[in-house]
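Suppose you are handed only two things: the residues of a chain and a line of SMILES describing S-adenosylmethionine. What would the bound structure be? This form records exactly that question and the answer produced for it, so the two can be stored side by side and reused later without any lookup.

QUESTION INPUTS
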Amino acid sequence: MASTRIAELAARIQLRTSDIDSYLQHNQLPSPAFDEDGPVDLNLPNGDLSAAREQVLDATLELHDLLLGPSLCLRPVYNGLSLQVIYKYDIASKVPLYGEASFADLAEKCSLSEVNIRRMLRYAMVFHHVFREPRKGFVAHTAASRRLAEDPYAGAGLGYMFDETLPALEQFHSDEPNKCGWSHYHNTDKAAWEYYALHPDKARRFTHAMSAFADGHGNSPAFLVQNYPWNTIGTGTVVDVGGSKGDIGVLLAKQFPDLGFIIQDLPEMITGASDTIPAEFKSRIQLQAHDFFTEQPVYGADVYFFRNIFHNWSDSRAILILKALVPALRQGSRLVINDYVLPEVGTMSLTKERAVRDMDLIMLTLFNAREREEADWIELFRKADPRFSVVRIWTPEGATMAIIEVLWTCADAA
Ligand SMILES: C[S@@+](CC[C@H](N)C(=O)[O-])C[C@H]1O[C@@H](n2cnc3c(N)ncnc32)[C@H](O)[C@@H]1O
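ANSWER OUTPUT
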């Protein structure tokens, strides 16, 4: 009998799952499970096993959609209300770890009706493996709900995604960051970053959400640390522009003991950030308040590094950020950018392509901004200043985010 697509996919799932299973068993690591004491992450090493995981995820997604059939693929697949309620009422912390709570108890604690608590949690159980019902009417944790109870960053990630990235409204005809779906939903004429300056609780949740997402599949900062030749900078200085609270600077400082770092961000983001820099790195990591639309105050650094920055801005704004950098550049200064590059259709794994295209629409909702294809990046630098020379754009094996290296090529630049 001729092989069919569904049979091929099923065979691939079996083969590559068995590679993962053998690795976990050989290293006496726990097998994936949703049980309350199950692992919240697989912790597979980068390389072949991460690739195996991605192949299985891709094959199961495709098999799932094929068996669903084209008509059902037209249905909205996701109703986030149950997770939104779990976040808003902090239900994970109201269920005792390794114990139980009744629907009635939870309803009372959340001031919600028992009917609504029950329908929300039962939805989350079947769609998200968040909570379980070990006996009728009682709720206990799974590994996923336990993570929400134990890790405040996981909650920040969920709340941020629901409150800020989902309201995709019809306002995408402008490139102004204060006329987007997000600002419409928040009933404000301020762009998100200005709004955060006035709402420190939201600013804090944003930085915590970024930390929660940093370990996401395919966008681990390890890809950046391992795949850019940082050692060629010697004892130089890296300015991390829009570096939030310095997580990436710390990771790089650990690996490259000769490098110094200046982490720049808006004053309200950088305030208090020094508390999270471990004492051993404080002499090599400075924090500096700086608005990247104003002239760059650090002259002649070896590298100006931008991670997850340009995708937050429309082309007209991204060009302003680049122009504000120009007065500080000297011949040979490098820009290193860690951001997404939209793939040619079908050249990336389905899992990664979904993640990147998802991010593209999130950027539209939040900021009227965009992810860019390789040619868009090259055009962006050309329009900002022809003295920017794009040296290389590449996506390291296994990564979702690309690395873009750009050289400043004018000897006269101050
Ligand atoms: C998506 S986050 C990326 C943070 C960090 N680079 C990372 O990859 O984890 C964007 C950062 O840009 C900062 N930002 C926004 N507007 C800025 C401005 N005008 N000047 C400096 N930083 C700004 C935000 O505060 C935020 O920390």
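WHAT STANDS OUT: The pocket of S-adenosylmethionine is lined by residues 193, 210, 242-244, 248, 265-266, 269, 290-293, 307-309, 312 (CB under 6 Å). The chain has three domains: 5-73, 81-150, 213-408.
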